[in-house]
Amino acid sequence: MKIGSIHTVGAIAQFLGRAVIGDDTLIVTGINEIHRVEPGDLVFVDHPKYYDKALNSAASFILIDREVPIPEGKALIISPVPFDDYNKLTKKFSPYRPQMSMTGENCRIADSAHLSPNCFIGHDVIIGENVTIHPGAYIGDGTVIEENVIIGPNAVIGHYAFYYKKKPGGYDRMHSCGFVYIEKNVEIGAGSTIDAGVSAITRIGEGTKIDNLVQVGHDTIIGKNCLFASQVGIAGCCIIGDNVTLWGQVGCASGITIGDNVVVLAQSGIGKDLEPGKVYFGSPCDEAKLKMRELIVLKNLSESSSKK
Fold this sequence. Notes:
GO terms for molecular function: N-acyltransferase activity; UDP-3-O-[(3R)-3-hydroxyacyl]-glucosamine N-acyltransferase activity. It is an enzyme of class 2 (transferase). Its EC number is 2.3.1.191. Keywords: Acyltransferase, Lipid A biosynthesis, Lipid biosynthesis, Lipid metabolism, Repeat, Transferase. It is built from 4 helices and 34 strands. By secondary structure, the chain is an alpha/beta fold. The chain has 2 domains: 92 residues, 3-Layer(aba) Sandwich (Udp-n-acetylmuramoylalanyl-d-glutamate--2,6- Diaminopimelate Ligase, Chain: A, domain 1), CATH 3.40.1390; 183 residues, UDP N-Acetylglucosamine Acyltransferase, domain 1, CATH 2.160.10. It has a 10-stranded mixed beta sheet, with helices on one face. The protein has an 8-stranded parallel beta sheet with strand order 7-10-13-18-21-24-27-30, with no helix packed on it. An 8-stranded parallel beta sheet has the order 9-12-15-20-23-26-29-32, with no helix packed on it. Strand 33 and strand 34 form a beta hairpin. It is globular, with a radius of gyration of 22 Å. It starts with a strand and ends with a helix. 39% of the residues are buried.
């Protein structure tokens, strides 16, 4: 998330009531969680396991719970509760805006777009030429929909990211301030859900077709001309290449990269990166030809044991 107006890291720290370690005149241009950081961004980290990842990331500013050596060109904000302070910042720069009408403020909707009755359109939404949105669909704040897109009935585009901090009293949700970008000629089926980015973009590539009852998690990037069958579930922060086919009930763990032209057969579970141009099957999935051999071996062992 870009924060627009000019803010020094010193001013940010002062707003939080925290101390800066390093040059407090450096300019903060954005706020992002670790998977989508860029130079000029502020990121938070609150566990030693992830210190190196945050400190060595592209982020220029790290909201952290202890003083550590500062990488060159960066500055630290020391906080006993980095998650809470990060949420405080995102709520400051991207506050929740209540909405009482079916179409929000500052939207740009092409004259040729067809919005069926009972569609909810949030604030700052852009809808391109010849878009069709069927009844009951929810289009969240900041969503961009390019031309010739079809959104099925009761689809939910741009709801909160599923991102929580576990605390003794329960779970605190990270405030979502990202959005969804849908490229042209995409189709999204009835009842499917595409979560907003936590602080960046969830993107659906040109020509991709998504069946009914599919879930796409926050900050996931899906390539062009993909095909996802019903009940596919994709966790957050995945990168999926072009021309990928995921058949029914495939599940994908967070942070996975799937190469171009991959096919994953039905009811498979993806727990690791998948190489381009291969067919996968099973849970955990592997190349389909290897997995089939395993099943044959197991079947033969079972039959051999039953004969004894």
